[in-house]
Model the fold of this input.
Amino acid sequence: MKGIAHFVTGVAIATFFPEVVHQAADGSLLPMLGGIAGILPDTLDFKLARYFETYHLEIDPGPEPNARQIADGIVGAMRRAYETGTPQNVALHTIRLGADLWRQYVVRFNPLQNEVVVRIGPVVNTGQVPFPGSDPEGDVEARLKVGVPMVHTYDAENRVDIFSGPSFRFERQGDELHVHFLDWHRRWSHSLTLAAALGLGAAGIAALVEWLAQGALSSLPLWAGLVTGLGFSGHVLEDQLGFMGSNLLYPFTKRRAIGLRLLRSGDPIPNFLTVWVSGALILFNLDRFSVAPTLDAPVFLLLALVLPVVILGGLYQLQRRAGEMPAPAQAQKDIISETEEVETA
Done:
């Protein structure tokens, strides 16, 4: 999900508590605290964890990329990970040719043929639109056998073109080599245990500030902790609807749990629908906890929630079944969605 969807979800969750709504009416920023907690997991990743990740190999193809060299680097790291048992982190850099020019290349992990395929593609602009006649000439594709059984835990094909390139972690698990996409993302930062810890921390800080300022405690610290923990948890659970998944119970679990694969983080309809539903719930909660509610609850919920979810949700499912967008392009939308927040910040 996009940041705005997570933020509005956090605010919506906060408004389900009458006390929070009443305090907000008196000027409290508790609902905003829920929104901030809602975007915090990705903030921790993109502004902190990402820069602590170390790579055993960084592949920079340069302005004249060689498909065979790229494939050699990737397969070499995969074999080292399998033979030594030591996971290998590999970063793929983009090929920037100008302010709005990028050379695209594709990396495909193919377990059935036990090979890695690298194909050099056309020049594209930042909107990922190819320039006619920009496809390279000569040997633009390389296929290299891996030699060990592999499992890709994300999409098989990955396009590398704009902003930051993706990274992969090759890790041996039993007799198989697992290929993890953006392994630094959604690990410790996307856990329900961290949500609980942050909720307790927020409550403690609020209690300390209130005690120092007033010499007494109210219910505010309790609500601050609850709103923080639930807003953070909402982000984690929303992400679990996608493909990449999250490490739900870190540090008790060590790996990301596979997502439900119901949607993709870059798809516009799920993002729009999340913002719409959250906004409708905020209005509904503000009204029902007011002194004089004015909304007809059944009618409002039917028109503002049920119908949009049925119509847009059905349209989204039809799009997926019809395959309007090929799988590689769908995967690329996820890659861009997961990395563009850093590049455009």
